[in-house]
Amino acid sequence: MIVVTGATGALNGATADHLLERLPASDIAVAVRDTARARRFADVGVEVRHADYADPSSLSTAFAGADQVLLVSSSDPGADAVALHTRAIDAAVAAGVGRILYTSHQGAAADSPFRPARDHAATETALAACGVPWTALRNGFYAHSLDLVMGDWRDTGVVSIPVDGAVSWTAREDSAEAAAVILASADGIDGPATVTARDALTFEEVVALASASVGREISLEVVGEEQWVAARVAEGTNEFMARFTLGIFQAAHQGGFAATDPLLAALLGREPRTVQHVLGAS
Length: 282
What we know:
Blueprint: E1 2-5, H1 10-20, E2 28-32, H2 39-42, E3 47-50, H3 56-63, E4 68-71, H4 81-94, E5 99-105, H5 115-128, E6 134-139, H6 146-150, H7 153-156, E7 158-161, H8 172-184, E8 191-195, H9 203-214, E9 219-222, H10 225-234, H11 239-253, H12 263-268, H13 275-281
């Protein structure tokens, strides 16, 4: 039995869909906070269980009988993600799960300026100490996030950033499919697994591709960190979220998201989607 948490979200929901292409529905369960939103899985024979990392009493039942559990990372910027993740890991161990998989992130590091990268690093430390075989899926930065970090470039013709750095922008759809391949395989991957697109591109390179995708020149402005934050706040973004997003650029500038690995292509049996694909489809 494979239990997939967070299956009402885009990432693990897609992973559950890909698992259904490979395994009988009776071999899969989804564990979600709102079971009503998982009706589509119940309709095809997947067991739907209630699970909330903030409610320890829900987790023992959610993980019961699981050979593998895929833990989704918290997406709440204001949450104590490490505490939530550790609680889920402890519950999986107590339930006798054979392997714990976790949706980590490329660039997981205790000293990263991007807070989620620090949370992922701490969670991986907890996994390493849990005594159960584990896999941390260090997914490349999800390429749909380009809409967040590049702003309204299609309307303005300008991309404004605080600092530049390379990022191996990776399609979330590809990461989801890769997780399903790993879960359905007889051979587990131990420890961290880097799951990224083939190339890491600077924002200068991304903007050149954006220009080509729309057939007109899009310009890049590198304005500095404080000026960039001030501009976001002036546009209506609260300062917490502006500085949270600033951490993406800072980590990229330090090389935190620049590593690439052929593993994703090998798992998919094809080339991963590219930035060109994402810009053209968005």
